[in-house]
Design a protein that fits this description.
This protein has one helix and 16 strands. It is an all-beta fold and 303 residues long.
Length: 303
């Protein structure tokens, strides 16, 4: 639901909570650290025959670079899911999120040309720059939609998209700047195949674009299901940047997953192919068939 609020409350079970931790570029400089926590809950009024709704909360904390760029984001998320074909073989999802973002950094750690002397760097020298706004706050609004089709218990396909930063909030470190955040466009999809009672294939993709920046991630997760435990293995590619290797398991509705980025971009001269690692924990509560999406579907958080 971080990339698309329409994803909220689409997994099996009534309630889901999760945490995620990622560390990146530790081999180059001060690592980029990201922590995420979320909660979601299905709302199913008795008058709803096939439809349901969802409500959730996302908390995100990021720290980046030598200047300690600190970002805190809190989003309230809501979704509505409309059954189109009996037993929800086809349903449409709509979602939106709204929240606040706080950003700050340590300007004393910035380096400017005029602070270099013949004897070296002198941070006591005035930088003669325009006064910095070292902390600021803005609101954020996002919306998305998704279509999910499960013709049989052996296959389920989904395609969705979202627009983030729809309100174009102002983001700048200079008081007089009018810089606004560009709208982020997200397109994602995938197909879940049930090969047999134990084996599932889950190929997926996500395409993100914002102004002139683009990112494409494609990959495949494989699930091997035993009596009470499911094992996951996956290989993903972040185009022109990283190969992502992942492994995880699910037991008693608790999912733990670990991934590692193998960097192959031009930066690998400095990284020596070491990108970063990510670990996530997810716990589901409630009945498994609580407005279930598809009987044979195994779900896995995208890392």
């Amino acid at each position: 639901m971080y990339y698309n609020p329409a994803n909220l409350a689409t997994s099996q079970g009534k309630t889901k909570v999760g945490i995620d931790y990622k560390s990146q570029w530790n081999s180059v400089s001060k690592p980029y650290l990201s922590q995420l926590a979320y909660f979601e809950n299905k709302i199913i009024p008795k008058s709803f025959k096939q439809d349901w709704a969802g409500i959730g909360l996302i908390l995100n904390n990021d720290k980046a670079g030598d200047i300690n760029l600190h970002t805190i984001k809190a989003l309230l998320v809501g979704s509505y899911h409309k059954g189109i074909i009996e037993d929800n073989k086809l349903f449409a999802s709509f979602g939106a999120s709204f929240g606040v973002v706080s950003k700050s950094f340590d300007a004393s750690k910035l380096i400017f040309d005029n602070q270099w002397t013949q004897s070296g760097f002198d941070n006591s020298l005035a930088n003669d720059e325009v006064l910095f706004n070292t902390s600021y706050l803005y609101t954020d609004f996002n919306a998305g939609t998704m279509l999910t089709y499960s013709p049989t218990n052996e296959i389920s396909a989904s395609l969705g998209g979202s627009l983030q930063n729809l309100n174009r909030p102002k983001e700048t470190t200079f008081f007089e700047s009018k810089n606004k955040i560009g709208v982020k466009k997200v397109l994602h999809g995938g197909v879940d195949f049930k090969i047999d009672e134990k084996l599932f294939f889950l190929p997926k993709f996500i395409l993100v674009s914002q102004k002139k920046a683009k990112e494409l991630i494609m990959g495949l997760n494989i699930c091997y299901s035993m009596k009470e435990t499911q094992l996951y293995f996956g290989v993903w590619d972040r185009a022109k940047s990283d190969i992502i290797l992942m492994a995880g398991f699910e037991y008693d509705r608790l999912t733990m997953a670990f991934s590692y980025d193998v960097n192959y971009s031009k930066l690998n001269v400095a990284t020596n192919y070491r990108g970063g690692f990510e670990i996530s924990l997810t716990k589901k509560f409630g009945k498994k068939n609580e407005r279930k999406v598809s009987a044979g579907k195994k779900t896995m958080p995208m890392l």
